[in-house]
């Protein structure tokens, strides 16, 4: 496995993996798949401080992670929100742990003091991964997101770095 900075040439793979997360229904509450242009604007149209990493197996992108602004107020410049998505055929192989470790190092190098995330409460495998990587539970947004006729709780987690 090789972890490297995400580049525009990875956009197709990043988009495909993100859309798997939408289809699977436990990674995000998006209601429709995203186009490459929508993902490009979301991930690549921001400061380089907000790292994007991909992990490859034999030259094929099998997962990605990225930092994004938590809020746009100056008081929160040291806090980054993270996203992470793994190809559905590669989950459970330790890829998420590798990506989160690399992302944390990058976040520290870019002068963040905290990483935070939000994860659907029903996504217990992701919750366990984050706990193993040193994140702690902050709380639950109850009935926070609506999809497919039901409300979902969203867990908030953080890690001081």
From TrEMBL:
<feature type="domain" description="N-acetyltransferase">
    <location>
        <begin position="1"/>
        <end position="161"/>
    </location>
</feature>
<dbReference type="Pfam" id="PF00583">
    <property type="entry name" value="Acetyltransf_1"/>
</dbReference>
<keyword id="KW-0808">Transferase</keyword>
<dbReference type="InterPro" id="IPR016181">
    <property type="entry name" value="Acyl_CoA_acyltransferase"/>
</dbReference>
<dbReference type="GO" id="GO:0016747">
    <property type="term" value="F:acyltransferase activity, transferring groups other than amino-acyl groups"/>
</dbReference>
<keyword id="KW-0012">Acyltransferase</keyword>
<protein>
    <submittedName>
        <fullName>N-acetyltransferase family protein</fullName>
    </submittedName>
</protein>
<dbReference type="InterPro" id="IPR000182">
    <property type="entry name" value="GNAT_dom"/>
</dbReference>
């Amino acid at each position: 496995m090789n972890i490297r900075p995400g580049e525009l040439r990875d956009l197709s793979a990043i988009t495909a993996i993100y859309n798997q997360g939408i289809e699977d229904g436990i990674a995000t509450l998006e209601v429709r798949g995203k186009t490459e242009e929508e993902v490009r604007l979301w991930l690549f149209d921001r400061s380089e401080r907000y790292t994007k990493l991909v992990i490859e197996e034999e030259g094929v992108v099998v997962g990605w992670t990225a930092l994004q602004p938590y809020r746009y107020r100056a008081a929160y410049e040291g806090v980054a929100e993270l996203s992470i998505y793994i190809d559905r055929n590669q989950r459970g192989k330790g890829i998420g742990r590798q990506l989160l470790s690399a992302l944390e190092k990058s976040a520290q190098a870019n002068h963040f003091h905290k990483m935070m995330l939000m994860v659907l409460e029903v996504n217990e495998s992701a919750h366990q991964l984050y706990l193993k990587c040193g994140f702690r539970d902050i709380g639950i947004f109850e009935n926070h997101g609506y999809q497919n006729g039901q409300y979902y709780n969203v867990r908030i987690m953080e890690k001081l770095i």
